[in-house]
Amino acid sequence: MIDGCGRTIDHLRLSLTDYCNLACRYCVPEDAPSPSQMIDTEFAFQVVRWLSRDHGIRNLRLTGGEPLLFPGLAPLIERFGTLESLHEISLTTNAQALAQHALALRAAGLSRVNVSLDTLDPQRFSYITRGGRIDRTLAGIEAAVEAGLTPVKINVVAQRGLNHDELPDIAYWGLSRGCVVRFLEVMPIGPLTHVADQHLVPAAEMLERLGRHFELSPIATRPGQPATDYAATAAGLRGVIGIIAPTTKPFCDRCRRLRLTSRGELVPCVHDRSSTCLAGAWDGQRLDVALADHLLADAIAAKPEVGPRNQLITMTALGG
Ligand code: SAM
Asked: Whose CA is nearest to atom 12 of ligand 1?
């Protein structure tokens, strides 16, 4: 699938549910109603089958909300695993419930996980996530490594005043467990742009802070990877640290993503409010592929060259 700007679209982010058991302050507005939309399993399977078979989607990332709260997750992954055109199935999670699911997910065919972890401090963790338990997330990461859901990538949203002083410590913690550690700039998304403005730590500053503790040399990244990766070494420790700078250095020219929300909407750009509803092509049992092809063409035609930053909904609804 090639869009009007010549970008190959081969990554799908599939939001299984907009429900999350945490409510990170940069992700979920304080007064947001608690959503609970679960995608229809058969719809999700048929859409992924169609997109991978007919339209070149190769990488599937399961997300949400919190995808581990989706009932029947392992059997659905097993079905996705039968789709020969898919090269990789990964999942983004807060890992609160990963320790108990890691082995079953690996056995079902999940390739690897990305885990969100913004701090190593239990009080800060509870504050940032509005009530999350850090011991659960740390245990989830260890279980994922043990289960072979590797490379486990730890995603850290750097936030001034909340964790900006901890970046090297988190890198040490992750690298010493064989994880890739990626630091993200907070993005102005939907109703929470003011949070990003208030807490943004620019990538250049992250690099400078990390560079005081690690020797960092840039390494080549795969097409479609938003991160700039560095081989990192320090005191006998070696690994990969990534920096993702969607706010100060947007990577729209390299964007290969399409999103499908748990409400059945195709979203071609995270920073653009336009979406195309696939519901009309679904009769409850079967995807009308001819109609879906038309709707997909509309969605891809609407993918902007540069995200206009007019998104109205949150990352939990869009699929992060
Ligand atoms: N619940 C899962 C989790 O916590 O990883 C998956 C969904 S979450 C929306 C996916 C990713 O989006 C997380 O890594 C989170 O940190 C990131 N995210 C959400 N809002 C963001 C923002 N405003 N800026 C940067 N990253 C954000």
From this structure: 320
In this structure, which topology does domain 11-318 adopt according to CATH? TIM Barrel (3.20.20)
pLDDT tens profile 271-290 = 999 999 998 999 999 999 99
- Tell me if the pTM is above 0.85: yes
Query: Distance between CA 77 and CA 70 in Å, rounded?
Result: 11
- Torsions phi, psi of 16, nearest 5? -75, -30
* Banded pLDDT at 134 (limits 50, 70, 90): very high
Contact residues of ligand 1, CB 6 A cut-off: 20, 26-27, 63-64, 66, 92-94, 116, 155, 157, 184, 186-187, 189, 192, 196, 315-316, 320
Cα dihedral across residues 142, 148, 151, 153: positive or negative: negative
As a whole number of angstroms, the longest Cα–Cα distance in the chain is 59
